[in-house]
Amino acid sequence: MNLVGRHLIDPSNFSLEEIDHILTIARDMEKNTRKYSEVCKGKILATCFYEPSTRTRLSFESAMLRLGGSVLGFSDAANSSASKGESVSDTVRVMDAYSDIVVMRHNREGAPKLASQYSSVPIINGGDGGHQHPTQTLTDLLTIKNLKGEIKDLKVALCGDLKYGRTVHSLLKTLARYENMSFYLVSPEALKIPSYIKEYVVSNYNVEIIETDNLDEAISKVDVLYMTRIQRERFFNEEDYVKLKDSYILTKNKIQPAKEDMLIMHPLPRVNEIYCDVDDDKRAVYFYQAKCGVYVRMSLMANLLGVLDDVDCK
Ligand code: CP
Fold first, then answer.
1. What is the pTM of this model?
2. Which one of 41, 62, 90, 297 is most buried, counting C-beta atoms within 10 A?
3. Of the residues 56, 91, 143, 228, which is catalytic?
């Protein structure tokens, strides 16, 4: 498995075997965190965040600190020289000299890919506009694997803003690669999954996809319900957002017909789409999911930096 020096821009950059390898190491890191506490000693992670983040940036930081490395970066384009007009390509060429690995979040689709073309250190896409969010997908996969045992033979509902939601774009493209998966894509007409993603999945993988605007139709049938926020920041006008913002609201009452072992997932942050009365339900796993993000990002960085040769990872 040679992941050393690679970039992660889109989940398709890694084979399923490579993804499963990252998950396996992440599981060991969760169980035996101390074993890995110095593997990144002397390594520096740069966090270049041009868009707000709580989980992605801080779980990357936590991950690097738990591996014994150090972190530098910016959490707002306004506090970087981007505010003076510096290009992504110039910024990343400077980061090359300051760090060993870079995670970048940007409002512009394709910015991390552009950065990877100018960087000699690994670039990780921490979310680019309404496009992709591959490390959220690794987080989601680890959550499902830990709680379901295997990632196969699952019916998954992806619900909410499927048009602008980068987490669902990456997750659908990746889950479709596993054995015998089927999907309900639940959204209002105006927020359907982009046709280029649906066509990619249907033409490359043998999966069943049902598109509907009716969450009740899906809820009793699925093994995983993945809720998402309506992405206010991607709308061109507030009026359209207001019309759609409460399209789906999950409540204790609404999940009554669901399977006993259905997972309720959400990449977070949530706004109004899952009521707090669902939080105590044993099926609600979104805070555990956020925790999985630390271990999977530890594993990802350790693999890209090639620091695991002297560690027994099993
Ligand atoms: N899930 C996720 O990307 O959260 P943040 O926007 O807080 O990083």
1. 0.97
2. 297
3. 56
Give rounded-to-5 percent helix, strand, coil for the chain: 45, 15, 40
Atom index in ligand 1 nearest the CA of residue 51 equals 6
Choice from 268, 287, 288 to test ligand 1 binding pocket (greatest atom count within 8 A of CB): 268
Best mutation site among 47, 59, 128, 136 for ligand 1 pocket (most ligand atoms within 8 Å of CB): 136
Are 143 and 122 members of one domain? no
Cα–Cα distance for residue pair 83/99, rounded to 1 Å: 21
Catalytic site includes residue 84: yes
Do 285 and 143 share a domain, yes or no?
yes
Assigned token pair, 14: 């890694």
Active site residue 234: no
Q: Which structural domain range is residue 271 located in?
A: 134-290
Provide the token pair at 58: 């801080």
For ligand 1, say whether the CB of 233 is within 6 Å of any of its atoms.
Answer: no
Per-residue pLDDT of the chain (314 residues; tens, 9 = 90+): 799 999 999 999 999 999 999 999 999 999 999 999 999 999 999 999 999 999 999 999 999 999 999 999 999 999 999 999 999 999 999 999 999 999 999 999 999 999 999 999 999 999 999 999 999 999 999 999 999 999 999 999 999 999 999 999 999 999 999 999 999 999 999 999 999 999 999 999 989 999 999 999 999 999 999 999 998 888 889 898 889 898 999 999 999 999 999 999 999 999 999 999 999 999 999 999 999 999 999 999 999 999 999 888 86
Phi/psi at 32 (5° precision)? -125, 55
Protein residue whose Cα sits closest to atom 3 of ligand 1: 56
Distances (CA, A) of 73 to 70, 80, 91, 98, 296: 11, 9, 11, 10, 21
Domain with residue 196: its CATH number is: 3.40.50.1370
For residue 150 the two structure tokens come to 């295997």
